[in-house]
Amino acid sequence: QVQLVESGGGLVQAGGSLRLSCAGSGITLRSYNINWFRQAPGKQREFVARISSVGGTGYADSVKGRFTVSTDSAEIAAYLQMNNLKPEDTAAYYCSATHRVTLQEFWGQGTQVTVSS
Description:
Largest sheet: 7 strands, mixed
Number of helices: 0
Helix content: under 10%
Number of strands: 11
Mean pLDDT: 93
Radius of gyration: 14 Å
Structural class: mainly beta
Low-confidence stretches: none
C-alpha cells in the first residue's frame, strides 16, 4: 500500500529545470507537514525543503532561491520546482509527510535527478 508516489526526476543539463511531484494515495495532505530530502551515493541524506500544513515554507541554504515547494489547492499533491540545476543537485529525491498531531510518517519511493555539467 503506497501512500506517497513521487515522479518527475530525470536527466537534465546544468541550468535546466525539473518539477518533482509527491502525490498521496488514500490520504490527503491537509493535516501533514511535507518535507523533501535528497541523498547522493556515498553522502548523507540532507534536508532540501519543507511546507507546513498551514503553508509555511523553508529551504536549505544550498537550494534557496532556486527551488520552490508548494501544494495544490486540494492538498492532494506536493511539488518541488527546481530551477537552475547544478551537478551538485544530483541525488535521489524523497518526500515525506508527517501528521501534525500524531507525527505518523509516510514516505515516497524516491525519484532520481541527474544533472550533467
